[in-house]
Amino acid sequence: MRLHALDRLLQPILAGCVPVVPESRKTAEALGLVLASAVRAPTPVPRHAVALRDGLAVCAADLVGASPSSPVILGTMPASVHAGDGLPPGCDAVLDPELAIGGAPFVEVIEMVAPGTHVRFPGHDLAAGAVIAPGGARFDASLALICDVAGVERVEVRVPRVAIELADAAVAAWLGAEFRRLGCRVAGADETADLRLRDARDSRPRLAIRPGETGWIEQCEGEIVVEVPDRFDGAIGVFAFLALPILARLSGVALCETVLPLSAKIASTIGSSDLVLLMVSDAVFKPLAVGDLPLRAVGRASYFLVVPPGHEGLDVGASVAAISFAEPFAGRSMPQERPSRNDQD
Fold it and tell me: pLDDT band for position 312 (50/70/90)?
C-alpha cells in the first residue's frame, strides 16, 4: 500500500495558507491570544518624575554638603509627597522627613541626597514608542499589566477559527482545550472555519507517519480539513504533524524549536515520519516514546520532535530541535530557540 509522505502532502497546503485577518480587542479580552503586530508605548512611562516612597520632594543641588555638623538651611519646608505622586517642578529627589528639622523660616536639612534618590524619571520604564511586545507574542497577564500602566487600551490579534467534529468526546475536549489555549476560537460545526477537524473517513493507512497513519489533510471549500484517527495516540499525532503547523501559519507566527542534546538513542522507522515524545531532565532531552505513544509517556511529555522518514534514528548526545507542547509558537522566545524548518520554507 502506497503511503503519502508527510512533507509532500503538507508543504503545498502550508504554502497556500495565509494568516487570518487581524482584529482589534480590548486588552482585557485579548488574554491568551496571539498579537498580530507589535504593541508600543504611546507615551513615556512614567510621563513625569514620580516619587517611589513617602517623603519630602527636594532639589538635590540645594542640599549639597548637608550634614549633621553643617546643615543646609531652607526657608520653607519641602513639599510632602506619597509613593506614586508626581514631583513638583524643579525637584529631582525624595528626602526622608526625619532629615529635615524645624519649620519655616529655618528648616535644617542634615543630609544631602543624590539626584534620582527614591524617584523614577520620565521614560524610565518605557520610552515613547518602545516595543512592549512583538507581533507573534502571546498576550498574557504580564503584558496586560504593562499595557494598562502604559495606557494601551486595545491590541491587534489574530484568532483562527477551528471547528471540531469528532465522535470521541474525550479527544474532542482535549483538542478544544488545546486550540483555545493557543489563541483560537472553537467554532460550531455549522460555522465556517479556517481549520476543521473531523473523524477520518478511511480506516486504511494513508500517511507515512507514526502515529496517525489513517489521518489526512486537504483543502475543501475554502477550509483546511484535518481528518483525525479514532485512537487518542493518532489524534496526538495529527495534531503535532498536521494541525499545529497549519495553526502557526493561520496565527502568523513561527513554530519554535528548543535545541538540547539527547540522553539516549532514538530508533525510528525508515520511510516513516516518527513522532518522538520528550521530557527535559538536567538540560538534556530524555526520549519517552517513539511512534507508539502510551498514555504514561503522554502524561510526562513536555516536548516533541519529528524524525524524518530517511533516518534510522538519532544517536545519544546528538543535538536535536524539539517543539514545546506548552508554548509551541515563537514570540517571547527562550534561549537556544529558533524557528522550525517548516517556517523557513
Answer: confident
Alpha-carbon span 298 to 114, nearest angstrom = 58
Buried-state track 182-215, b at ≥16 Cβ within 10 A, e below 16: bbbebbeeeeebbbbbbebeeeebbbbbbbbbbb
The three-state secondary structure class of 164 is strand
Q: CA angle, 326 as apex, 180 and 182 as ends, to 5°?
A: 20
β-pairing, 161-165 with 185-187?
parallel
Confidence label for 180 from pLDDT (cuts 50, 70 and 90):
very high
Residues 248-259 pLDDT 10s: 999 999 999 999
Rounded to 5 degrees, what are φ and ψ at 207? -110, 140
Q: Can you list the pairs that 23-26 forms with residues at least 24 positions away whose Cβ atoms lie under 8 Å?
A: 23/156, 23/157, 23/158, 23/159, 24/154, 24/155, 24/156, 24/157, 25/154, 25/155, 25/156, 25/157, 26/153, 26/154
**Residue 263 grid cell:** 540522553
Q: Which of 324, 328, 326, 325 is nearest to 343 (CA)?
A: 328
Quickly list DSSP for 23-62: EEEEGGG-TTPEESS-EE-SS-BSSS-EESSSEEEE-GGG
Per-residue pLDDT at 340:
54
Q: Report whether 219 contacts 13 (CB < 8 A).
A: yes
Q: Name the band, by pLDDT with cuts 50, 70 and 90, for residue 331.
A: low
Q: How many CA atoms lie within 13 A of 141 on its CB side?
A: 0
Report the alpha-carbon angle 239-243-249, nearest 5.
145
pTM for this predicted structure: 0.82
> Could you tell me how far CA 222 lies from the centroid of its own chain?
29
Go through the domains of the chain in sequence order and give each one's CATH number.
6-20+159-251 (3.40.980.10), 50-120 (2.170.190.11), 256-344 (2.40.340.10)
Question: Residue 217: what pLDDT?
Answer: 96
Give per-residue burial for 167-179: e unless 16+ CB within 10 Å, then b.
ebeebbebbbebb
Mean per-residue pLDDT of the chain: 93
Write the pLDDT tens digit of every residue in 58-85.
999 999 999 999 999 999 999 999 999 9
